[in-house]
Amino acid sequence: MASGARKTVMFMATVLLGMAFVLQSGAMARNGGGVLSDGGDSGGGEAGAAVMIRRGRSLQESPPALSTTTRQSGLFSLDSCGARGDGEGDDTQALAKAWSAACASPRPAVVLVPAGRRYLLQQVTLSGPCKSSITLMVKGTLVASPDMSKWSDSNRRYWIVVRGVDGLAVGGGGTIDGNGEVWWKNSCKINSALPCKGAPTALSFHTCNNLRVDGLKMVNSQQIHMSVEDCTGVQLAHLSINAPGTSPNTDGIHVTRSKSVQVSDCTIKTGDDCMSIEDGTHDLHATRLVCGPGHGISIGSLGDGNSRAEVSGIFIDTVQLYGTTNGARIKTWQGGSGYAKDIIFQNMIMNNVKNPIIIDQNYCDSAKPCKAQGSAVEVSNVVFKNIKGTTTSQIAINLNCSKSSPCYDIALQDIYLKIVGDSSSTGSTCQNAKWRKSGIVIPQPCTGTN
Question: Which residues participate directly in catalysis (predicted)?
């Protein structure tokens, strides 16, 4: 085959792959779009306009001139927008240009991060709405700048943000590398003498409905790896999330103020919660997860700063945990209000987990002791079912509930937890908890009070 013909075939194969992912996602967003720095809106500019904020300086550009073939195919590669892809030159603007052109496309579009290359990025926000369905196809690696000074105080909490894009599909099997080591060693949780400053979440989705993220690798986030906020209709699948167990606050998947969320077939190894399910989350199903190291599957923390929190309809099924601090956990602060209800943890295997089953309505993650307060987030209708394995502590079941707002309708069914490498039996403690059991439950619930 002639060289020109071979290139044409390879190009069209990439286009077809991207279009297939778009069609599979079923995304249908139909409005104008843009790219913004964190915290802004498009401000009524032309669809596809790119606005980058660089350390307090605004630079506005039109999308790059693109070939007729590129526009017609709907495939917008970072390389065609001037990216270097060597992991050293700043490719933030190339991503912004590719996104801007794709978001303005009247036909389904793909933003392609090519395989085999590393694209260095500063903070960037990719905004919609877009004129048609859009796919972010990550085949190579997006890597965060190691220079902390590239993040100002106004954008310190974010790295890559996708905002207001309905029907978005993200996939491709590539990697998002947060380059987090420099942030971790400057965390006050590592060095208490340092002033506390928030670190970026690697990948955030804000107000993105009908979102699908499938087949990504995420490593070494600066703080949280992936955050889903104010979204409805979310599918997260086949994610691999990896950071050292000593890395501070590196939650795997964080969900807040979102509805109808499905998480499946993910492996999460981090220094904090494998999944953190926060205020405003309703109708979340998570299944077939492998977790550890980390802090386990956590609902909360809820009600911090005397706030109101509401969480309901949480279904956690078929989870394996290895060496985690917690297994199935609900944590709320004193002084909060609201509820956490209609929750099921089932079919969980614990392997050397310190606190396999825990409800803590007296949670306190503060350098100073927390003051006792007279209100709490109400915890009710919680089921722990078919949970088995080993624990590293004597107390395998801990229901530490509030005196002012006791936990109630707590069901324990078919539980068998033993201490790893020890013939002694495990125990349990309860405080202000109204529970019932069915089937065989070992340890016997509430043999002690804490």
Answer: 295
Per the annotation, the verdict on 206 as an active-site residue is no
Q: Which two tokens stand for residue 444?
A: 């016997």
Distance CA 33, CA 52 (A): 14
- How long is the chain? 450
pTM of the model: 0.85
Position 315 pLDDT exceeds 80: yes
- Cα(307)–Cα(171) distance, rounded to whole angstroms? 36
| Cα–Cα dist 299/281, whole Å | 10
- Phi-psi map region of 30: left, alpha, beta (phi>0 left; psi -120 to 50 alpha): alpha
Number of domains in the chain: 1
Q: Which domain holds residue 307?
A: 109-449
Compute the chain's Rg from CA coordinates.
Answer: 23
What is the C-alpha to C-alpha distance for residues 100 and 173, in angstroms, rounded to an integer? 23
CATH of residue 428: 2.160.20.10
Rounded Cα distance between 356 and 376, Å, is 23
Q: Confirm whether 397 is domain-assigned.
A: yes
Of the listed 206, 225, 254, 295, which one is catalytic?
A: 295
Task: Give 5-51 pLDDT, tens digit per residue.
Answer: 444 434 444 444 454 444 444 433 333 333 323 333 333 333 333 33
